[in-house]
Amino acid sequence: MLFRQLYDRETWTYSYLIADPETKEAALVDSVLEQVERDVQLLRELGLTLRYALETHVHADHITGAGKLREVTGCQTVMPVGAKAECADRFIADGEVLQVGKVSIQAIATLGHTDSHMAYLVNGTHLLTGDSLFIRGCGRTDFQSGNPGQLYDSITQRLFTLPDETLVYPGHDYRGHTVSTIGEEKRWNPRLAGKSRDEFIAIMNSLNLPDPKKIAEAVPANERCGLVTV
To answer: What's the CA gap between 167 and 2, in Å, rounded?
Structure first.
C-alpha cells in the first residue's frame, strides 16, 4: 500500500493519499482547495489515477479540494451518508468498503463532531479519524449539530474497540504530532483516558472555543464540494 500524509499549514489540516502501487488506483481523503495543485502534481509524479476524493465530514475550517480534483482528474467525490452536499457523486454508509485496487477503505460512522461523520479504516491497520479523535484530543462539538455524548460513544464504542496497535491518523494536529495508536490514545488522551461519559460531556461543554476563522465561508462552500472562487 502507498500511504502519504499531506499537510496544509494555514489550517493545520492533514490530507491522506492512499493507493495501490500495482494498479495505480488512488483515493485522497480530506483534500484542501489551496493544495489541489500540489496534490495533482504528486499524483502525476507517482503515476496514480485518482478514483475518489473522499471526505470525513463537511468541514468548517477549510474548503475542500474535492470539486476541483473532480474537474481535473475525473474522480468521484464521496461524502458520508447524511451530509448536506448535493454536489457529491455518491454517499458512503457505515460499514461500506471502497476499493482502490487491492486496498480497502472501510467507513466507520463516528458521529458527534457533526451529525454526519465517518472515520476510515485502511487495510485494517491505518485509521483516518477525521475530526472525531485527535492525538491527545478530539474534535469540538459545539456547532453543525455536534453532540458530545454521541462523540464519546463513537470513540469509545467504535474506535477504541479496534486493536491497540491500529495506527491513528487525525484530520488535524496543532502541536506537531503526526501519528498515534489506539492503545496510546486509550491510555494518554486527556479527554478520554479514565473519563466517564458525563465527565467527557462536561469537558466538551466548557471549552468555550472561538469559531473557526473560515466557518462562514467553509461550510456553504463544502456543501458544494468546494467549487467556489477563492
So the answer is: 15
Residues 6+ apart with CB under 8 A from 37: none
Give the residue from 38, 39, 4, 40 showing the smallest Cα distance to 21: 4
Question: Measured between alpha carbons, how far is 205 from 148 in angstroms, rounded to an integer?
Answer: 8
Per-residue pLDDT of the chain (230 residues), as tens digits, is 999 999 999 999 999 999 999 999 999 999 999 999 999 999 999 999 999 999 999 999 899 999 999 999 999 999 999 999 888 999 999 999 999 999 999 999 999 999 999 999 999 999 999 999 999 999 999 988 999 999 999 999 999 999 999 999 999 999 999 999 999 999 999 999 999 999 999 999 999 888 887 788 888 888 888 887 65
Strands 76-80 and 90-92: parallel
CA distance 219 to 98: 25
User: What residues are labeled active site?
Assistant: 57, 59, 61-62, 113, 131, 172
